[in-house]
Amino acid sequence: MSPFTAELVGTMILLLLGNGVVANVVLNNTKGNNGGWIVITFGWGLAVFTAVVVAQDGSGAHLNPAVTIGLALVGKFSWSLVASYISAQMLGAALGTSLVWLMYKDHYALTEDKAGKRATFCTEPAVKNISTNVLSEVLGTFILVFAVLYITGPNFAPADDTMQPGLGSLGALPVALIVLAIGLSLGGTTGYAINPARDLAPRIMHAILPVANKGDSDWNYSWVPVIGPILGAGVAALLFLNL
Questions:
Q1: Which pLDDT value is given to residue 153?
Q2: Distances (CA, A) of 224 to 59, 137, 200, 201
Q3: CA nearest 225: which of 182, 198, 196?
Q4: Alpha-carbon distance 93 to 101, whole Å?
Q5: Which CATH number goes with the domain that contains 216?
Q6: Which domain holds residue 137?
Q7: Is residue 134 classed as helix, strand or coil in its secondary structure?
Q8: N or C: which end of the chain has fewer CB within 10 A?
Q9: H or E element in which residue 176 lies
Q10: Mean pLDDT by 10 residues, the chain (243 residues)
Q11: pTM for the model
């Protein structure tokens, strides 16, 4: 796959599985209804693992504008590619969350909770306090990007000259575990967007798609999961460059 296609497909899978587990837990009459926060956090961690497995060889599996910007800030990624990566991530997130809507369409119709329906698309804070909500997204994304900047590959000797050293698909595991840790420890305040594409593109689709009795898309809050992660990536890059 080309880098653009890899980022699009990877982010699509990320949102299909990530928002899919939220829909399974939140919407009425699903097999996973009321599965709880632990199910959601593990589901998102495994969504990251699956998406990275698919995209890593094609694009490096950023799947997140904050990661792309963070890598560019420290010189590990070309600024000339940032716009194309973010465009692919946004399109992939919109497509992935649209597939969730299509799959769970019957269950949306059976669910009256408007906030619950919106939660299957985008995040919202448990307690709405913009200053602490922004701080939560900054801290969560700081941990994600800072840890990603320190991920290193093993120095294995390949079996022959045609093989590249590395962990293969298991190389996706560290990022998945980082996201799981963030969700379990820091996700209870805002739902840990930690990814502008993960929140903004699905929020747009919430506004567009014909979800039964869906309520508003909470645009007053929508900038928090965009600006917070970008600031968090900037802080991570600054600290990384000065240690």
A1: 56
A2: 27, 8, 10, 14
A3: 196
A4: 12
A5: 1.20.1080.10
A6: 3-241
A7: helix
A8: C
A9: helix 173-186
A10: 96 98 98 96 97 93 96 95 97 98 96 96 97 98 95 54 51 90 97 98 97 94 98 97 93
A11: 0.93
